[in-house]
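# nightly structure sweep
# worker-07 picked up a monomer target from the shared queue
# config: single-sequence mode, recycle default, output format = structure tokens
# input follows
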Amino acid sequence: MAGTMRRIHPVILSGGAGTRLWPLSRALFPKQFFPLASELSLLQETAKRVSDTTRFAPPLVVCNQDHRFIVAEQLRKISLTPSDIVLEPAARNTAAAVASAALVLDAAAEAEGEGAPLMLVLPSDHVIADAQAFRDAVEAAAPAAEAGFLVTFGIAPDRAETGYGYIEQGEALVAGGRECPGCFRAARFKEKPDRHAAERMMAAGGWLWNSGMFLFRADALLDEMKRLSPGLAAACAKAVKAATRDLDFLRLDERAFGQCESVSLDYAVMEKTERAAVVPADMGWSDIGSWHALWQAGKKDSAGNVLLGDVAAIDLENCYIRSDHRLVAAIGLCDITLIVTDDAVLAAPRGHAQDVKRLVDVLRGQNRDEIVVHSRVYRPWGFYQSLEAGDRFQVKHITVNPGGRLSLQKHKQRAEHWVVVNGTARVTRGDQTFDLKENESTFIPAGTAHRLENAGAQPLRIIEVQSGPYLGEDDIERIEDSYGRT
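# output follows
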């Protein structure tokens, strides 16, 4: 590794919804926050991959504003402090996210009197089995990126995949009169092909899967963005200039960012620029974009099955079955995907993995909550999980992390009864503040200001019984909040 080279600034994109992994992945808790390939979540694995501080600066994360506390907590759990967490007020695809990150990094470098930073763009939901091959590819790309090229990473294909875009590898790259070993011109980009086109490209050779990872100087990317997508570049510049600080987050201006065209970085810049380069790599890469991809990457039994959770099976072949909630018993199935959560079941032939997104669109048209939230809903202080609901009542299991505190709030239409299961609860009720221990309880009348805090060193678990004519989450009047949500 070249010790004289500047540190690279990772930019982790965490804005996707992962609809093809429904019902596990949902809008408010998408796939990058789940441990799908190891004990760590995909986001945590991505961050750890660039945690070598001799080569990489602390990462900058761009995420949906609704996910900000989940991102912060997951990074805290692996003892990683990002340089910043940039909040997107709306989903605008990768071009706007990357351009905004480039502007933030460029401004920070200028303030420090440093040159244009090298930024390594990494989606948060990829699996890379060979970390050393990943680092080697980054090192191969660095000289070309320093010379002003926009470098992407191409994955050597092992099948005619229709779920990925492709890059045609061109001639060996020469930058500043010097060769860049392992780096080539990107001759052509191809969107996700049909089966026939994918097979033709595999047979012809010279085509690589488009990984969606990039390395370039921030100023080089911004120059090309201004030239090729000037409207998008201008909107991003306004959004960053008018950004506001929100606790540990940088919130992009909502009005300006809303004017950004929703396009990919490939479409906005890479497919049009003459400065596109590609580094071919074999790093055990997968974007884990479907249940079929998880079956391919999973540990299989002798019959080719991946069975996760509480699963009992007889005579199965090449199936992917995952239960996150209850016993699943299966007999005589072949090439089937079966996913069971506590509130939804997905069953499909494995070959229909790309159709899950279509199914989610159908559910969206029916206004189904199951595509947005899980029964377990995460908050900056912990989470709550609905256990039972009926006419005028709802029962929830609430877990508050040590040091966590809910907002001081009141409800117009519901009363609440709290029973402590584990831990010590500090309760504010009206003008009273008192502690409750295990098996103790309290009642919060409708219209009474109240707050729940974890006063101990262990997670606090309570059972909450709500009663009243309306129990929706929008019946909350926040009076004071530690997380800036008032």
